[in-house]
Amino acid sequence: MFSKYHVVVFTEIHTNINDIIAWNKVLREKNISTILTQTLGLYGYVFCDFGDEFKIHDTDGERTNNFIVSDIEKEVNAEDPSKSHIVVFCHEDKWHTFSDESFVKFREL
Q: How many CB atoms lie within 10 A of CB 91?
């Protein structure tokens, strides 16, 4: 049924959670990733199962740090809009240690 997909995303649970767990097991056996996300009023969650071979690559081995975001802007490339990008500015009192292509997690938005 899902053999043509690489990822199956469940956005709401309208059934018993055990049914989702059973689906995840079937999908895992077929090497298909599972993402489950749900919002519950003021909070929500995301569960991801990308299989046993999935690895997170830490490019520098440094501890994660917290920074205060002061602004986020979209810079539009007038010549080629597909090359537009998002620029995140950190509060000036605490300089960040990120490099281009860094992955970040936003919390307490």
A: 12
Tell me how far apart the alpha carbons of residues 12 and 50 are, in angstroms, rounded to a whole number: 19
- The partner residues of 74 in beta bridges, in order of sequence, read 86
| pTM over the 0.85 mark | no
Q: Give the closest residue to 33 by CA, choosing from 58, 12, 11, 2.
A: 2
Tokens matching residue 49: 């199962």
Query: pLDDT digit string (tens) for 61-109?
Result: 776 667 778 888 888 888 888 888 888 888 777 667 777 777 777 776 6
